[in-house]
Amino acid sequence: MAKLPQSLQNIALFFERLPGIGSKTANRLAMYLLRLPEQDLKSIGEQLSQLKSRTKMCKVCMNLTEDNMCHICNDTARDRSTITIVETVLDLLSFETGNIYKGVYHILHGKIDPLNSIGPDDIFIRNLELRIQNSEFEIKEIILATNPDMEGEATAMYIRNKLREIQKEKRLTFKVTRLGYGLPIGAHLEYADYGTLSKSIENRRDF
Amino acid sequence: MAKLPQSLQNIALFFERLPGIGSKTANRLAMYLLRLPEQDLKSIGEQLSQLKSRTKMCKVCMNLTEDNMCHICNDTARDRSTITIVETVLDLLSFETGNIYKGVYHILHGKIDPLNSIGPDDIFIRNLELRIQNSEFEIKEIILATNPDMEGEATAMYIRNKLREIQKEKRLTFKVTRLGYGLPIGAHLEYADYGTLSKSIENRRDF
């Protein structure tokens, strides 16, 4: 049997558990670590050990943070009247990288996915309802930014219905919007799928 | 600016330093770690910290090991009269996975690569010479298993010349061989490159 030294082998097995990394890549990565300065490995080793105990969820938006509130909810320059609902922290990062959005977020940490037995109570929808009902700030708009796939759509629809109930109950008048659909910038019509093309016709605009 | 909590960010940056991992994948991997049990992260963190101090080179073949000698050189069932010379430990692993080879190895940890200023003295060729000159066992064959690219060929040729000098000096008669070239199993002639096809004609055999 192929065998690396035990500690190297363990690290290769660790890499292999990560998504998208096979056993050959895992070995290559483990081997690569031997080239890094010992100090770097020590420091990253410590951080890995403490990762879970250090990382918490923001009590407002469920973003990941090391404090009680994340840097976005803490930032008074952000527009707290607009909340964008995303599935994961990675989706939030995509918006933040572009610097195109000045509001705040709510992270669901998942989507409604009956095939994998994930229901509305398994993601952070209830927290969103409470957040809206008890908000100190006036909420003007809620943007549903779940992914445009089947589960993402279902999640968006479920949340929209919940939001309507809250609006009736609490006599609130915020807008509920969904991200725009159509051709991505730089796309080629030739390679666009049927669903995207049909949305791009439906959502055509004056020009 | 997009921002993860500090410890998560540091781990993402660590992943990003690894070959073949971009910043999006690095973020995804770091995020995935939060799903692993804390105990696993602690244990892998410790192993990372100790990785470099624990991993040594086998004093015989330069394979990686936690002892003085690697498990292959220590294995008395292996045929010590045949030495296969490979560039890296990963190459050794490929041979070992197949369980197709019963001899021992010598790992160069690199190849002669003048464009990147790596000369014969920068890889473990001198150790190989000493190993052969001072061997307790009779050496019958040395298989040059460097990669079939330009640098691998140059390295193989350099070592072959060195071995011939040693043979003359010490009146030794071991065979020196190179791995067979030709079409890989499962290949399609249609997609084979010129060099491979030409080798496969040159190395054709009775059938």
TrEMBL record, chains A, B:
Residues 81-184 form the Toprim domain. Coiled coil: none annotated. A zinc finger (C4-type) spans 58-73. One of its GO terms (biological process) is DNA repair. Pfam families: RecR_C, RecR_HhH, Toprim_4. PROSITE patterns: RECR, TOPRIM. GO terms for molecular function: DNA binding; zinc ion binding. Keywords: DNA damage, DNA recombination, DNA repair, Metal-binding, Zinc, Zinc-finger. The keyword Lipid metabolism does not apply. Belongs to the RecR family. May play a role in DNA repair. It seems to be involved in an RecBC-independent recombinational process of DNA repair. It may act with RecF and RecO. This is Recombination protein RecR.
